[in-house]
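Many introductory courses stop at the sequence. We go one step further.
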Amino acid sequence: MANSFENPHCRILWVSDIHFRGKYKGNLNAEGKLKQLYDPFLDKIKSEQQTSPIDYIFLTGDIAFSGSSSDYQAFWDWFIVPLYQFYKELVDNERINGFPKIITIPGNHDISRSDVSIFETFLNKYNTAKNNFEQQSQLILNPDNLPSFLKTFENYSLFFGDNSTYRGINKIWESFFKLDKNDGSTYNEKRLFGHVIDHEKKIIIILVNTAWFSIGDKFNELLVNNKLKKIHKETIDDLVTRGFTGKEIADTVDFYYRELTESILKMRDRISEYGTQITGREILLFDNIEKQIKLFPDYIVITCMHHPVNWLSWGEQYDYDDKGSGSYRFTLNRILAKTDILLTGHEHVPVIKMPEQINEQGNGWHLKAGMFMEDQIDLIEAAKYFEHSRFSIIEISADPYLFKEKRFLYYHPSGDSAFPEWKHYDSGKDEKAYTYTLSNKKGILAEESLPQLISEIGNFDLATFLYNRYGERKYTVKELAKTELYKLYKTESAIEIRLCIVPLKAAFSKLFVPTPFPTEHFLDEIIKTNFVDSRLLKIHFIWPDFLVSDQLKNLYINGDEEHKVIFGKIARYSDMLFNKFRHHFFERFSKISEEKKTKETVELAQIIDFKIVKNIRFVNEPVPFWIFKRYCKPKKTDI
């Protein structure tokens, strides 16, 4: 089988935690450092693009430092425009069909801090004693208050959202950000949360916003102003009214301060940097996303959010109180249960950090990003100011389901004449150590989709299938025959002739091993007709697995087991019948000998020569339905 990553099904450039400041623009010190960082980065992307096209660019939060318009303007000019110029040249010269699409999700640094009224409203109404976070959160996010919530990401959405007013004179926005074939309308509008479905690449991208309440020192300032100072004044007024004076007031206030500080710190942990952060929980239509995932069970699900799971509160991940109620709140575990690859930023983990399995069942993988660029590079005087800068390229194979993360680390010059560069990180491990199996796929075959699947068999792209599965060059494939039970194809090389039989609707028992096994099998005439010289004759049966056995097909429809378990059962069953078929097929020719020639064997020998039989090789290949669909070309329709 060919290397699964020689021609990846999907390729993603993943960059996180850029922390770009508008004030870098015009600062000679900062701009010099940015040039040293970005020029080699762009060179590396050019090199990787030549190896295999990049389909998506993911930016998983903290694109800007303070969520200001000047931050995004400078980032756009510094990062987006040069990238656009590179890809535009490729498109204009018809070296690629189109631009990679940029997918963004905000981080805590992407919150606009110019208008904090919604945070003040929340804090004024939040009751520390009652811990009424859920009630206040729902109040803030109800449709009447939604505009205030969206305003906290106003500058971010201005540049990346559908209603962007800064799109560039050369249609930069349309080229990189416009998603024509996208079922996730909630993501299209503001780029805050939602989902994207790519039917060509067969991936579903879920975008979760974990940035709200995560505004660092600004939140702490609001917290003190709205709670501590207010309570301080109320406490002193109350003590004076009650007749306290001098040291009594001071001691009592000191006691209250300690109690209040502890209470406020708990409150901050509950709703600030650590705590309930998932934004839009009440308006992210995850029920609809779940339906889409079930409708396309072979699609790979990639979830992007800025904060890793361990930065979220327990209640956001699990839904315990409402279990079994029939209607339950948004909780992260609903998404993670469906996720194959989880991408997060924020923690700036070192390059040696390996992916983790999402849960104890081992379903899905969690990849944590490093930072692309540290903050305040204009003030950093150290020689290695980009010591931990890194990014990744994720390659996905859909046949079989695998992915590989290629990590790139920024290397500093070792001498005055040396130039900094981005190098593929080498930890000393074998390349296979960075390849992971996507085992989260469930074998869900909707019964109502079976007629469509069966109708698509006739459009099977055999040439591409053979190339991807066996690494053979793309031979010309000729269709020889079509019956009610199968289609027959022929392809040949200098050393072999391959006859491919793709069953249309018959199960093994009907086509392979009828009872009794006939003296003259339907393959005999096919073999005799196509054996023209001494080349090896391969007869290759390519089975859509849902045609192998009705009983095993029902396991898919019920969806009770993982796809690999069900397909394993189908493969074993088909091999058992296939071996039985070969035994009966060749057994007929063993009876042909000079000593014993019956009328039956003489007639058989006239049909097919025994010398031909010695050059025959049978190949049995059941194909999982989710793989089979990838190789079915859509039928042409008259316009």
